[in-house]
Design a protein that fits this description.
single chain; mainly beta; Elongation Factor Tu (Ef-tu), domain 3; seven-stranded antiparallel beta sheet; 1 helix; 7 strands; globular
Length: 188
């Protein structure tokens, strides 16, 4: 049985893959639950005189993981002696929340510049000659699991604000879809 009082508990994380510089989010508080959903598709085959259709497997579906984490700029998390969340100069957690949002925006080499921009990522894409690449692929680590995935949804509920109206506590909901290696040529 795990020691619930261990000093430096293992923290879950999201990290970009193949992006330089990388985006690393280490969860200040691990999610209480991780929903892991997998679906597949069956085609209905109907024929005259059949009582019910026959089901034929047609394709695998996505494996979707979703979870919620708390980001709190007022209190230290269980591992804050090793993991510190990003804060602005007024104590707001905006820079930490931008890390989560970075997984939803097209790749850019200067994504850190969003931390200093009032409008976040929008100003990074002002150049009409910009070539957009897909948002970064990431790895989700949680205990022994490390899953290559893409972030398909981030929802941030800001829950508490300082005197400057900067968020200091937020709940972040994240939805991921696993990326599986696919080789269209089964003979290789």
């Amino acid at each position: 049985m795990a020691n619930l009082n261990q000093r430096n508990p293992v923290r879950g994380f999201l990290v970009s893959v193949g992006l330089d510089p990388e985006i690393l989010v280490q969860f200040q508080y691990n999610p209480e639950k991780v929903d892991d959903k997998r679906s597949i598709s069956y085609a209905s085959l109907n024929a005259p005189g059949m009582l019910m259709p026959v089901r034929q497997y047609s394709a695998g579906g996505d494996r979707t993981l979703s979870f919620k984490v708390l980001v709190d700029g007022l209190f230290a998390g269980p591992a804050d002696d090793e993991i510190d969340i990003a804060r602005d100069d007024r104590g707001g957690i905006g820079p930490e929340l931008l890390k989560y949002r970075a997984f939803m925006y097209p790749q850019t080499e200067n994504w850190q510049d969003a931390e200093t921009s009032v409008d976040g990522f929008v100003s990074l894409y002002d150049d009409p000659n910009s070539v957009f690449a897909a948002p970064p692929v990431c790895a989700f680590g949680f205990g022994e699991r490390v899953i290559d995935c893409i972030v398909t949804e981030v929802s941030i509920t800001e829950q508490l604000f300082n005197a400057s109206l900067d968020p200091v506590r937020a709940e972040v909901s994240v939805t991921l879809v696993e990326i599986t290696p696919y080789n269209p040529d089964p003979s290789v």
